[in-house]
Amino acid sequence: MNDKRFHRLLLFICCLGMTACSKQREDSATQIRRVFVSRVVKIPAQFLTTDASRAPLAAAQNPGLLTVTQKREDELPQGPEGFEVLPDGGFAITDPLQRRLVFYDSLGDFRAAWSIGFAANSVTALAGGEMEVRDAKSGEIVLFDAAGQRLSSRAVVRRRGAGTEARLLELNRGVIARPRTRGSAPGDLQVDFASDSSQMVSLQNLGVDAGGNTYVALEAARGSDVIDIQKIIRKYAADNTLLCQITDIPLDYYVPPVNEFRIRAGQVYQLLPQEKEVIINIWNTNP
Amino acid sequence: MRTFFLLCCVAVIFTPPSSPRQPQMPARTRDEIMAIAERLAQHRWICREANRRAPCVTAAVYESDWSANDTVTGIAYDWGGMDDPDDFDRKLAQGQAAGSHSRHGITNCTAGIDCSGFVSYCWGQRPTHDYSTSTIRAIAGRPKYNWYTKMKPGDALNKPGDHIVLFAGYRADGNPIVYEASGSAGRVIRNDWSTWSRFKNYYPLLYKSVVENR
User: Fold this and answer.
1) Does some domain include residue B111?
2) pLDDT tens digits, residue range A124-136?
3) Is pLDDT above 80 for A181?
4) Which of A51, A162, A251 sits opposite B171 (nearest CB)?
5) Among A35-39, B58-62, B131-135, the least confident range
6) Which of A127, A220, B15, B111 has the most CB atoms in a 10 Å sphere around its CB?
7) Cβ of B54 under 8 Å from any chain A Cβ?
8) Which residues of B touch A51 (CB under 8 A)?
């Protein structure tokens, strides 16, 4: 065999080897159990009418309608940005344009509304039915009791160190600092991301459930003329085993949410405000 | 006379057309840009009863974002506006309304700043609001670096027709920290809770006259 033929053969073998390696890498990535959206709740929304005579009428006729503004040049639409999943599976959603907090059952049927008197962009349920609601305009946190009575308010400390629980160490590698409580393994949870077509650009700790499982949201970017992001949520066991991941997360937000995800009883909830409805996507990560 | 007429014709033919207006791009260091952003986000003001009314808004009902005697931090969001802190305070003292939204239309009785006005102002564009998110490319280029690791404070993230924010840095978790004139917050804020997905389909911009810090 002359030199030229030998080199060609060598090149061919190398190519075969690289293809096999690449396939093996993809296969190991696809072995992770994927969880697909299991339920979708849709709550209708209406455009804010600037005709004062019609707005209260529409709200009175259907108090379960949420409100969004129409998209115009150089101003993002406004509307529901915050939500919470309640212990019974129902939802609390902020309705800032009507200065309300609106409650729905687990199917999205209207239950009640609190007129809170300010535009809220975040809501968190506390023990005993109390609700912590953030005023979008002032940034203040306002506490309400289970009956909707205002208890107190406090200024939010500027979160200069926000996101410090999760650290991106280098490309495609990050770490989540986990508390020793709640049954999780002590110490850091290392998060690695392997892909031939994208890079991990951020990670967030979404929370730890009662079983010590940690939910991590990571964002992967693809090479593009514009920012092109895919969001992935992973569930890790207390012993750091990767249990499953969610990859079919839509990001076409009409109103960008402040409370993007909530975790409750092994289920991941996403707030996806659209032009004509507010969608809540639900993934059940339980085995 | 004929010669004079011919000379005039020749002069008209060969006079170059008036050149399009060249954008003014004063040099700004990144530290200067961020100091201005912080100043606008930290500007404290009180909303008086008079600042809750906008009589010039006739096409829609004007409902103020603020209550009387609210103490607010951050210059009010005002669609089409580009007021610096001094102008903003002066207009409030004159009884103009604090802020407006796109649904209120173009106004001349409201004070504040919008998203493109905010970024333009931080980049030294004043006193007129010449650039929208669709035209701000006239004073900013598109950088070639890795946007997720190499952006610098004072760059911007823009989506023409939608919104523009000023990049301030990366959080430890890799997500961006930005300053923005936010319609939903009703004012200029420092936003350190957003994730990259909020900026899907945006692209980074680099102010053409930015001066690297020494």
Assistant:
1) yes
2) 999 889 999 999 9
3) no
4) A162
5) B58-62
6) B111
7) no
8) 60-61
* Domain contains B119: yes
- 3-state secondary structure string, A3-14? HHHHHHHHHHHH
Cis status, amide bond into B17, omega within 30 of 0? no
**Residue from A68, A171, A227, A248 to probe the interface with B (highest B Cβ count within 10 Å):** A227
Query: What ranges do the domains of chain A cover?
Result: 43-152, 161-249
Which residues in chain A have their CB less than 8 angstroms from residue B133's CB?
73-74
Is residue B141 a part of any domain in this protein? Answer: yes
Domain that holds residue B67: 28-211
Please give the structure tokens belonging to residue A186: 């002590």
A15-59 pLDDT tens trace: 444 444 433 343 445 578 999 999 999 999 999 876 654 555 566
- Number of helices (H), then strands (E), belonging to chain B: the values are 4, 12
Domains contained in chain B, number:
1
Amino acid identity of residue A177, one-letter, is: A
Class for domain A43-152, per CATH?
A: mainly beta
Contact A189, A178 (CB under 8 A): yes
Shortest distance between the Cα of B148 and any Cα of chain A, in A, equals: 6
Q: What's the CA gap between A44 and A34, in Å, rounded?
A: 30
Which of A205, A29, A98 lies closest to A21 in space, CA to CA?
A29
Q: Say if B63 falls within a structural domain.
A: yes
Q: What is the pLDDT of residue B62?
A: 94
| Chain A residue whose CA is closest to B172 | A167
Alpha helix ranges (H) inside chain B? 2-14, 30-42, 85-93, 115-122
Please give the average per-residue pLDDT across A256-273, as a whole number. 97
CATH of the domain at B144: 3.90.1720.10
Cβ-Cβ contacts under 8 Å between A and B: the total is 151
Q: What's the CA gap between B117 and B75, in Å, rounded?
A: 12
Question: Are A76 and B163 an interchain contact pair (Cβ–Cβ within 8 Å)?
Answer: yes
Write down the residue that tokens 């073998």 correspond to. A13
Q: What is the residue type of B203?
A: Y
Instruction: Say whether residue B183 is in contact with chain A using an 8 A CB cutoff.
Output: yes
Distance from CA of B199 to the nearest CA of A (A): 7
Q: Searching chain A, which residue's CA lies closest to the CA of residue B66?
A: A137
Q: Taking the complete model, does pTM exceed 0.90, yes or no?
A: no
Quick check: B69 contacting A, CB < 8 Å? no
- Chain A CB contacts of B148 under 8 Å are 199, 201-202, 221
